[in-house]
Design a protein that fits this description.
single chain, 283 residues, alpha/beta, 7-stranded mixed beta sheet, 5-stranded antiparallel beta sheet, 17 strands, 29% helix, binds nicotinamide-adenine-dinucleotide, binds FE2/S2 (inorganic) cluster
Length: 283
Amino acid sequence: MYKIVKRQQLNDTVVRLDVEAPFIAKKAKAGQFIIFRIDEQGERVPLTIADTDSEKGTVTIIFQIVGQSTMLLSQMKEGDYILDFVGPLGAATEFGDAKNVCVIGGGVGNAIAYPSAKALFQAGVHVDVIAGFRDKSIVILEEEYKSICDRLFITTDDGSYGDKGLVTEKLQQLIDEGNNYDLVIAIGPIPMMKFVSKVTEPYNIKTLVSLNPIMIDGTGMCGGCRVTVGGETKFACVDGPDFDGHKVDYDELMKRNSTYKNLEEHDRENCRMFQAAHMGGVK
Ligand code: NAD
Ligand code: FES
């Protein structure tokens, strides 16, 4: 059993939990994930680790309420216990010997981009962060980012905060201004990772993306997380979740992720009703 020691509502649909899991806190590296199960009836849900504190023995997860499990998790309070919290799973992000890196997060994907930016910055690498959101009301992690990067650029689709536009526009601008990045890390919605990779490809900038296919066991056994990278079949849970952004078959990933679209929409409708009743509506 794993105790929730801190709970924070980051915006209407995004929640941060610090969970007591000393073994994971000690071992986990940027890019790795956990799988949680709330109780005996619960489904197994993968979540990338947003942060760790090895002294306190805690692991931070930041998640969007998108279905029944994340809705139930969001209702848990400090002092409550999660039945299973397994990890660290997956391969850690391999940064190579990059010296000038641009880390890009899209929406809640920023929770996963954050540990990479932090690990690189603490290793003495120059780190620019582009954090993109639809609008000002859902901006998360601004203060946290400020202390672990050289420059932070926030973008909003509607221009209500930071620079108006998509993260890809800001990246193109920074490249045009002469920033010679040797690594770009992009984590967020699949179309965002696809189009970031399209921006960097002509400049031959190494680009890492973190894939979020459907996962079941998280150990390479079930095949649920199958993705195609450079024409080869890979399992995101053991070969990834990070892959070369220029080689990923994004269209196949989007198609496979929409397999349970109808069931997920039904789940989302339940969430919307819950949020409208308990959290003052949904964005
Ligand atoms: P969102 O749809 O609001 O997008 C966030 C930002 O990404 C936008 O503000 C924009 O700057 C950029 N973006 C989106 N589409 C783009 C495009 N076509 N071209 C260029 N830039 C684009 O994000 P959200 O609502 O917070 O949704 C989060 C998404 O991230 C979900 O789809 C979720 O499944 C996914 N996600 C992915 C991971 C991962 O590991 N890759 C982790 C968590 C969440
Ligand atoms: Fe089963 Fe990856 S989740 S093989």
